[in-house]
Amino acid sequence: MVLKFFDTAKHALVDFHPLNPPVVTMYNCGPTVYNYIHVGNLRSYVFADILRRTLEWNGYTVKQIVNITDVGHLVDDGDAGEDKMTQALRREGKPLTTDAMREVGEYYTSQFKTDLAALRILPATAYPKASDHIAEDIALVATLGEKGFTYKTSDGIYFDTEKFPRYAEFARLDIKGMQAGVRIDVGEKKHPTDFAIWKFNETLGYDAPFGKGFPGWHIECSAMAMRYLGETIDIHTGGVDHIPVHHTNEIAQSECATGKPYARFWMHNAHILVDGEKMSKSLGNTYRLIDIHERGIPPLAYRYWLLTAHYRTQANFTWEALAGAQSAYNRLTNFVFTLPNTESDAPIESYISEFTEEINDDLNTANAIALVWKLMKDASITDADKYATLMKMDKVLGLGLALIHSHMSEMRDAVPAGVNSLLTLRQAARSEKNFAESDRLRDTIKKLGYDVKDTPDGQMLEKI
Ligand code: AMP
Ligand code: ZN
Predict the structure, then answer these.
(1) Which residue minimizes the CA distance to atom 6 of ligand 1?
(2) Centroid of ligand 1 to alpha carbon of 73 (angstroms)
(3) Domain of residue 81, CATH code
(4) What does the alpha-carbon distance between residue 139 and residue 197 come to, in Å, rounded to a whole number?
(5) Do 399 and 353 meet the contact criterion of CB atoms below 8 Å apart?
(6) What 8-state DSSP symbol labels residue 363?
(7) I need a surface site. Which of 128, 136, 399, 402 has the fewest CB within 10 A?
(8) 8 Å CB contact between 213 and 59
(9) 3 state DSSP class of 326
(10) Cα separation of 303 and 283, whole Å?
(11) Among the atoms of ligand 1, which is closest to the Cα of residue 273?
């Protein structure tokens, strides 16, 4: 079955084939661990997870690297401003040392991993930390220097973008317009697009032959990607904000250093918005996964919500949208609970092949979810076959459907809380005159050990 992805570099849907099948090497730009990540960031990792699961579905073995940026990411994606990690030390009243920086980084990394687990994102092969790979950065900066691609200013070593004639190609940058338009203060830089690969810093920095300091954020990603995955990697991902600067710079420095193509496929997720603007810490409009949880919405309902949109379309985060996703997710899980949980029956081939077509078509999760609903309503298929088919589809969707039965059994011990939420759903179904759904919920509640009676005062529970 053909696997097609939208490649940012080619700006088109392209057939995917790895360099060395069955292995696929994949690098997902990881978080800068100076703070908690927000649910916008999490879209990047849910997208990368769906991509990895889709590759595995197609029989590939994925070597997946997610870096942890715990040094060197300036507040500005260019070269201005303070390092974000230094900012975190100031905010938290910690000493300005590399040890304290690592400590802060470790705390936010563990919080990041907790969020990944809550969203059933499979663990990557490795999560290398930038601070553990300073030697690789220094070697890369040195190679670029020897090959004549860099120059020194009073504040660092810079990559000379004019020496890489294809610099503007990847992001279709209008370099002439950039130079002619708004005057950018380039300081000692030769061209506005030149970027620091090493920043001098006498107080907080690492020793290097060209001067004490720390690596630039872009060089760290190139160094870690090549260290773990080789000079040419199959797939590199990130959010669309990385296209014009971070990934453009990664390509320039990596390809100049090795003379080889850096990444064969580039894939980018669109942003999560709030009131039409990108969810971002600088705009102060972020939500964390815990905020969702605290509203009583399970994290997997957020994953479900993300999957109902294509990863390349922007999605507006609202509590109404999430409540809609929660009730759909609840309906789905309630339905799964009503099915017999035997995995002995064969998945329905026609559904599986349609599902494969959808996810292989640039990860069309929205259509894959629509197919789940079609299957649920398909009267020609037995419950046992529905269960087997859903379990298989969930290998890609990652909605935790296989756990529903055990979760529901746990709920049995936690009544009436669990039963109460089912009663609320049933009440909603009845007010929508959806009696089929209301009956289904009654059966589910019965399995949890309670009979529901509809009385003039509303629903009443009776322990069986
Ligand atoms: P950062 O720590 O800023 O490098 O962000 C980690 C990942 O989240 C990157 O791949 C970003 O492109 C991505 N990202 C940041 N903000 C959003 C957003 N609002 N929606 C989707 N992805 C985002
Ligand atoms: Zn990166």
Answers:
(1) 31
(2) 13
(3) 3.40.50.620
(4) 11
(5) no
(6) -
(7) 402
(8) no
(9) helix
(10) 23
(11) 19
Count each helix (H run) and each strand (E run) in the chain, helices first: 16, 15
Q: Is 105 in the pocket of ligand 1 (CB under 6 A)?
A: no
Which residue, by CA, sits nearest to atom 11 of ligand 1? 239
Shared domain check, 259 and 137? yes
Query: pTM for this structure?
Result: 0.88
Residue 221 Cβ < 6 Å to ligand 1? no
Distances (CA, A) of 250 to 26, 61, 144, 236, 240: 15, 25, 13, 11, 14
Residue 4 inside a domain? The answer is no
Query: Rounded distance, CA 383 to CA 347, Å?
Result: 11
Q: What is residue 196's predicted lDDT score, i.e. its pLDDT?
A: 94
Report whether 34 contacts 90 (CB < 8 A).
Answer: no
Q: Which of 74-78, 149-153, 167-171, 272-276 has the lowest mean pLDDT?
A: 74-78
Q: What is the DSSP letter of 310?
A: -
Give me the residues near ligand 2 (ion), CB cutoff below 5 Å.
Answer: 29, 221
Does 88 map to a domain? yes
Q: Which residue intervals of 161-247 are DSSP H helices? A: 175-180, 217-229
* Assigned domain for 373 exists: yes
Say if 197 falls within a structural domain: yes
- Domain region containing 350: 284-309+317-414
Instruction: Please tell me the predicted confidence (pLDDT) of residue 182.
Output: 46
What does each C-alpha distance from 190 to 2, 187, 214, 248, 326 come to in angstroms?
46, 8, 21, 18, 53
Q: 76: CA distance to ligand 1 center in Å?
A: 14
**For the chain, what is the domain count?**
2
Alpha-carbon distance of 235 to 257, in angstroms, equals 19
**Last residue of a domain, which of 371, 394, 414?**
414
Calculate how far, in angstroms, residue 29's C-alpha sits from the geometric centre of ligand 2. Answer: 4
Residue among 71, 108, 241, 274 whose CB has most ligand 1 atoms within 8 A, to mutate: 241
